[in-house]
Inverse folding.
């Protein structure tokens, strides 16, 4: 299981000119719109970027100098085939892969000021302060990423410029906000806000860039109601504040394509005027905020002696090489010396053979959806022809690939019973320490079918696939696990320990790894990389 | 069993395709003088086009500025030669010239793909048909001074597999220099034009290409749109010297005020039809008003029963039986001759790069071709069923490994975007258009575009 702490938040600056049910020259003091209704139309819409005149404050490292031309030239100075250069360059954009970082330094925002909202209600070290210095805890990770990218810095950045030009010119982007049940534009405890897509072009003066308030705008539902969105809100000192809405889609095309922005937990904060409004629309982005929040308990343990750990050196399902077992035993001895409570025999009440059976079949079932029909039919045939007592990986794999939904449900039931057994175990023990794999890294072998390949463990040839047991031991029962380095083999290859914790105990397994790093052994780069 | 036999018999009795097509009204055209050996052929998608003696559609290759440099024929000169290009021309920055093309070893020359329409040494110009001299000394026919070619991809008379006149490229520097079919002018009075759209040959005004409509309550001799109606609809008035001809007649609205009628129906524009501010497209909003219809000089072939129309937030698209958006893949390479790379007989490397990151299997999973259901038949040349290898994208023999029977439009397979579970991408419900514009330069150079049947926002159904 991997751990991700990054949290992306989006926030955009929104400015609107009143479009219907309002007149231009009203007093700035409180007024009540006719019928309690006022409409705004979005005329400017841009990712907010806090700028200073010389960029020094927000981008101390400078602006990112790598545009596509510069990158291409640096990556492929000698040209080559279209496949290796031009297409590879495009593919990197279509199929971004975080595991293979590109070769260019990236300058993030270094300043502390940003537009946006405090979305999580907290003030953390990563948060920004509003440009006027009045609001702390501003969450805006998107700004951190785009703030020093020339193209995205308004007003002259090409992407920022065209995106906003499209808001003005393209009907796709016509976003209307209608406020109803408004008793006061200064303070009103409850107003209703509805977002629509409009049907008409903006009303402008002859220059095309100045908007005329007071006209009417038709609502566009010709192509469905996807962009109709209701919000509850209040007006505080002339500012509209809406409650977060779990999922909002806003049509926002910048390059002549019908694209949209997706917001999770989106809320608005808009300074209202009778004839204009300026404000922010913000929320976590699509990846993190999908509908539910996860609150992982923080670990209270600060020293190794605070931990009760069980240690498992090997298992009949996947016998572990002596080199790894020795390293784990050494770690166990060290922990005992550090006054941690250590047991070499404590185990959850789980039959590991059953766990392995459940794991392999459910794993292969989970990956079977992408098989071609033909390969799947082969799996069906194989599964039907296998002797019942064949528990080899191949047999289990084909059974998994051919699994009926009923069998899956039965396996799932077993899985959850094991999960409960693990949780009972964690009433007495904090962590389970076990191998990550049966041995150290082994030489590449791409010959033949995967399940027929072997590796050497304790001087015996064993199937390479057996060791996935050690991934399933935690994974099939939904437990977090962190791997930490604990030693080197005779050949100088790294050996790790798998630290398994209770469900949602991610901080505990990471905390333990951090203590090991401090007190036992830390990562060492391979000799050639030192 | 008896029922099965009856059904089978019914299927066999269905009118042969050619006959069904005959019934459709075809567009009329102006009989311009032509040199001997040429003819006018009516096509399903582009109306009337010029063709050679064998019925092969004639194309022009208009000079077009690119992001860097330009390609295509200036008037009076052919730049399509027998040189086999091995490298990209560098018209699409950030890519410099000189990168080796994926099909460099097997590549056609421009004249292989686009055989010039050669003229006899003693041929004489006729009307707008002139003769230019090619670099190799051969004579070539030109129309309106644009050199003429046939397309190697066209297989039978009436084919326009080589190109379309649907207005997608004008003024867009990232678009390739494509080939357009050439034909005689449509038979319309001054002030009118007929343009190619996905739905047929649409009657429009000549100046701003505004859509033209008819009203169901009108008759051949009388307009029912009077008084209040005229606030929203503007009659296409005829000048005093106008005369009826062919399918065109005149309706007297009031003494001395005459309105054009086409095929017995008076014509109007819709006052509230807004010109788009974006660079292409025209409004068809008037057709949403009950009783009012767009006017097609000739309708495009009907959508096969196996496929359907589907509403999306951006308009209507062609969809598969589930209602999932269908995509077309468009591609021209960036060699100086801008050859096609979106047809099964052309290189597939570009497409497999977009859909699978270069991996055929991943491509076939993410962007599967739309399979024809058992027994499905095409009722036109525009929509066809092809046997295609799902991995290579090339033509296949029925029953061959990985061969699929798939729907194609203009001989190009159609796709859906099933995507992948992780990272989660793909069209999941009817109306999703997640892959619209996926490709190089937002699919303007090559990539996937939703098969728009009506696009109120970006005009891509035109």
């Amino acid at each position: 299981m991997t751990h991700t702490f990054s949290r992306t938040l989006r926030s955009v600056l929104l400015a609107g000119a009143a479009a219907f049910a309002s007149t231009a020259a009203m007093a700035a003091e409180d007024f009540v719109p006719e019928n309690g209704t006022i409409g705004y139309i979005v005329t400017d819409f841009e990712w907010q970027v806090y700028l200073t005149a010389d960029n020094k404050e927000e981008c101390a490292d400078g602006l990112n100098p790598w545009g596509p031309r510069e990158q291409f030239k640096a990556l492929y100075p000698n040209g080559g085939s279209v496949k290796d250069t031009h297409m590879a360059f495009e593919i990197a954009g279509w199929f971004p892969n975080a595991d293979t970082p590109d070769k260019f330094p990236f300058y993030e925002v270094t300043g502390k000021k940003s537009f946006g909202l405090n979305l999580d209600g907290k003030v953390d070290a990563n948060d920004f302060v509003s440009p006027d210095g009045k609001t702390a805890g501003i969450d805006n990770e998107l700004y951190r990423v785009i703030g020093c990218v020339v193209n995205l810095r308004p007003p002259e950045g090409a992407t920022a410029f065209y995106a906003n030009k499209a808001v003005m010119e393209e009907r796709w982007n016509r976003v209307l906000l209608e406020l109803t049940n408004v008793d006061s534009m200064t303070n009103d405890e409850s107003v209703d806000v509805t977002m629509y897509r409009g049907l008409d072009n903006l009303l402008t003066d002859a220059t095309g860039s100045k908007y005329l308030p007071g006209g009417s705008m038709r609502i566009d539902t010709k192509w469905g109601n996807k962009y109709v969105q209701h919000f509850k809100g209040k007006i505080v000192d002339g500012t509209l504040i809406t409650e977060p809405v779990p999922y909002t889609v806003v049509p926002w095309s910048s390059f002549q394509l019908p694209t949209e922005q997706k917001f999770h937990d989106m809320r608005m904060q808009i300074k209202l005027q009778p004839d204009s409004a300026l404000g922010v629309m913000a929320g976590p982005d699509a990846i993190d905020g999908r509908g539910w929040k996860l609150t992982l308990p923080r670990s209270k343990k600060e020293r190794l002696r605070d931990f009760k750990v069980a240690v498992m050196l090997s298992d009949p399902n996947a016998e572990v090489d002596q080199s790894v077992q020795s390293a784990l035993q050494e770690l166990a001895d060290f922990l005992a010396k550090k006054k941690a409570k250590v047991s070499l025999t404590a185990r959850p009440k789980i039959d590991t053979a059953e766990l392995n059976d459940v794991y392999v079949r459910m794993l292969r079932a989970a990956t079977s959806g992408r098989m071609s029909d033909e390969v799947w039919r082969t799996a069906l045939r194989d599964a039907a022809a296998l002797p019942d007592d064949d528990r080899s990986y191949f047999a289990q794999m084909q059974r998994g690939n051919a699994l009926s939904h009923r069998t899956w449900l039965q396996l799932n039931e077993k899985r959850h019973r094991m999960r409960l057994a693990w949780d009972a175990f964690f009433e007495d023990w904090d962590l389970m320490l076990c191998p990550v794999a049966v041995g150290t890294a082994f030489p590449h072998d791409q010959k033949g079918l995967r399940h027929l390949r072997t590796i050497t463990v304790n001087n015996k040839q064993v199937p390479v696939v057996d060791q996935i047991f050690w991934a399933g031991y935690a994974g099939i029962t939904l437990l977090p696990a962190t791997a930490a380095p604990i030693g080197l083999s005779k050949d100088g290859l790294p050996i790790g320990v798998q630290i398994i914790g209770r469900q949602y105990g991610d901080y505990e397994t990471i905390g333990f790894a951090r203590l090991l790093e401090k007190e036992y052994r830390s990562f060492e780069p391979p000799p050639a990389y030192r | 069993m008896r029922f099965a036999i009856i059904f089978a018999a019914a299927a066999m009795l269905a009118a042969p395709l050619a006959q069904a097509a005959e019934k459709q009204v075809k567009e009329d055209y102006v009989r311009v003088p032509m040199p001997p050996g040429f003819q006018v052929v009516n096509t399903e998608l582009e109306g009337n086009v010029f063709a050679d003696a064998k019925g092969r559609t004639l194309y022009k290759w208009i000079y077009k500025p690119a992001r860097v440099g330009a390609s295509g024929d200036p008037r009076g000169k052919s730049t399509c030669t027998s040189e086999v290009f091995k490298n990209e021309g560098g018209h699409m920055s950030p890519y410099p010239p000189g990168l080796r093309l994926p099909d460099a070893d097997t590549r056609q020359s421009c004249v292989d793909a686009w055989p010039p329409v050669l003229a006899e040494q003693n041929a004489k110009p006729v009307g707008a048909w002139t003769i230019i001299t090619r670099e190799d000394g051969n004579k070539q026919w030109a129309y309106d001074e644009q050199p003429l070619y046939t397309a190697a991809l066209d297989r039978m008379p009436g084919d326009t597999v080589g190109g379309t006149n649907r207005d997608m490229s004008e003024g867009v520097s990232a678009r390739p220099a494509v080939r357009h079919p050439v034909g005689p002018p449509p038979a319309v009075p001054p002030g009118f034009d007929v343009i190619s759209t996905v739905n047929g040959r649409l009657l429009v005004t000549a100046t701003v290409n505004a859509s033209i409509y008819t009203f169901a309550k009108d008759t051949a001799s009388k307009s029912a749109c009077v008084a209040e109606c005229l606030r929203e609809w503007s009659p296409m008035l005829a000048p005093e010297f106008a005369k009826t001809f062919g399918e065109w007649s005149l309706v007297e609205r009031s003494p001395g005020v005459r309105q054009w009628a086409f095929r017995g129906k008076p014509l109007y524009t819709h006052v509230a039809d807004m010109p788009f501010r974006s660079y292409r497209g025209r409004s068809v909003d008037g057709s949403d008003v009950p009783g009012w219809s767009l006017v097609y000089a000739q309708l495009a072939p009907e959508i096969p029963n196996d496929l359907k129309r589907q509403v999306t937030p951006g308009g209507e698209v062609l969809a598969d039986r589930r209602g999932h958006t269908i995509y077309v893949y468009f591609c021209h390479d960036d060699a100086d001759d801008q050859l096609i790379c979106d047809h099964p007989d052309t290189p597939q490397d570009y497409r497999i790069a977009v859909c699978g990151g270069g991996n055929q299997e991943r491509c076939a999973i993410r962007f599967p071709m739309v399979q024809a259901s058992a027994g499905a038949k095409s009722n036109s040349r525009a929509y066809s069923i092809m046997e295609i290898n799902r991995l290579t994208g090339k033509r296949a023999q029925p029953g061959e490994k990985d061969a699929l029977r798939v729907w194609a439009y203009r001989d190009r397979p159609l796709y859906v975007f099933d995507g992948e579970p992780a990272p989660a991408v793909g069209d999941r419900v009817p109306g999703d258009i997640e892959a619209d514009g996926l490709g190089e330069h937002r699919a303007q150079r090559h990539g996937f575009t939703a098969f728009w049947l009506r696009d109120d926002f970006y005009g891509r159904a035109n």
Q: What stands out?
A: The first strand of chain A starts at residue 9 and ends at 20.
